[in-house]
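In the current project phase, we have settled on a layout for protein records. A sample record is reproduced below.
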Amino acid sequence: MDSKLLRPKTAIWTEVLLHNMYTPENVAGPGEDLDPTEITLPGCECSTSFCERDACTCLQRYNGAYDENMCLVDFKVETGYSRPVFECNIMCKCSEACKNRLVQRGLIFKLQVFKTLKKGWGLRTLQSIGRGRFVCEYGGEVISFPEASRRIQSQNSDDMNYIIAVREHLSSGEVLQTFVDPTHIGNVGRFLNHSCDPNLYMVPVRVNSLVPRLALFAARDIAAEEELSYDYSGRFNNLPQEGTTKEESCGDTSALKSCYCGAQSCTGFLPFDSSLYNLQDKWNII
């Protein structure tokens, strides 16, 4: 069989994952000072099952990210910029049923790993998904910038690259960087293919730790049997001035891999992050 069904809270791995370890969320990898499993965020004192905005310190501090239908609120419509997403965590006194607990619950929809015609393995949904709903997480080893660069530069032209660099631009001008590699330790998110016109977009969500969980939400209504995808460059659903996780190469395209997303807006090549290459002088990488 080419694929197996992924049911909520349960992952049934195909033969393609025999040499990989499954993790539902991020784990600490080489070189990273912050442990994603360490509890570093404070909790609320809510005594009710469901937190209320006027009483919950989590919702007051972070404005609340989900509406009554458990859909992600698009703050850009109102403000023109993104807001941080913080869920209630293990230190909070509210119940597990609190509506400010979403990504931490894991898979909700039935997903399926399948073999595509040109893109290798892919991921599709077996159920319809409404716009704004949480779909899955891109989980793996959280590694340092130098380690990400080392791993990238050790790859050959035929290797698949799963390392993602997420850069959050703060109003203070500071840039928070997170590097996640699910190549050997990861979850179903590693099977998501790139699209120049994707149906998912990635949002950093913090639960117990300052290290974000890379959550993917539906950018539009998604039909059953439709392949799931996101923009590897980070440009989709981001303002131009916010920066991106990938860079398009100008000039020589010999090092780029072809894109087969089939979108009308397809650039012809997969996004490429040049910042992870040729950094020996800057980081003293040997």
Notes: Confidence is low (pLDDT under 50) at residues 7-15, 240-251, 279-286. The longest strand covers residues 175-186.
